[in-house]
Structures are given as C-alpha cells and as structure tokens.
Amino acid sequence: MQHLPLGRRKIYRVALVAADATTNGLTHDATLLIIPAGALIHEVIADTTEAWAGTAGTLFIRVGTSVGGKDLVDEHDVETATLTKGGIIAPNGHLPSFSATTTLTARIRSSSGNVATGGVSNLTTGATTFYITIEALQ
Fold first, then answer.
1. pLDDT of the chain, 138 residues: tens digit per residue
2. Which residue in 64, 62, 43 sits closest to 52, CA to CA?
3. Model's pTM, two decimal places?
4. Cβ–Cβ under 8 Å, residues 72 and 110
5. Pairing mode, if any, of strands 83-88 and 39-53?
6. To pair with 48 at 20 to 30 A between CA atoms, which of 10, 14, 31, 60?
7. What angle do CA 84, 116, 71 make, to 5 degrees?
C-alpha cells in the first residue's frame, strides 16, 4: 500500500476482466484497493468498456466498502451494453474509518448461472475499469 502525502488526492485505476472471475457460484468478489486509515473517498467510477457475458442470466456489478457492499456504486446491469456508473460519493468525501484500513470490493453477480466452475471463469467477455479518487487525512 502506498502512503499519500496529507491532503493530496490520488486517482487509482483498477481493471477487472472476465477471466478474473474465478469464484464458484453466482457471485465473485474482487478486491479493488485497500485504502489507509483516515483516507477520504471522493469518487468511484465504474467504466464498463466491454459488455459482460457468459452465463444464462443477467450480470451485474456493484462496489462497496465491504464484501458485497454497494455503498460506493449501486448494482447495475453490465451485460446489455457498455456504460459508466458512479461518481462523486459525497460533496466532502466519505470517510469509512479513521482508525483502520478499508478494503474496496467489486462484486460481479449473475442472476442465473455460476460465474465460475472449478475455479475457472465461465464468463466469455467483460471489462470494467474502476477509477477511485482518495485523499489522505493522516
């Protein structure tokens, strides 16, 4: 984990592609970033540049400060088209914890059909890049 200078914002770019989804079952959780204690989250953008496909059901993505959470980017359909979702979290940022690190997690969810079988992705296409803007306070 990098240490940020106090009061400076940094934008992290994290890519997630279909082959990364290797958790058996209807969901796959991917760690996007671990932010330091006392860091403000200013913005999270999920930019889906390639529609996701490979299961019988619809595929969704959401982003949160806990596994399966959606407090940063609401769950949205990423199977039917490319799209950009998310944006400014709060006018002055969101402080998940002043005393502990916070793991930002993206969840891929299928409405029907496992995203992976035997640790191998069933998804044939899909690419989302996450842009996360944070600021260190301590």
1. 555 566 788 999 999 999 999 999 999 999 999 999 999 999 999 999 999 999 989 999 999 999 999 999 999 999 988 999 988 888 889 999 999 999 999 999 999 999 999 999 999 999 999 999 999 887
2. 62
3. 0.91
4. no
5. antiparallel
6. 10
7. 40
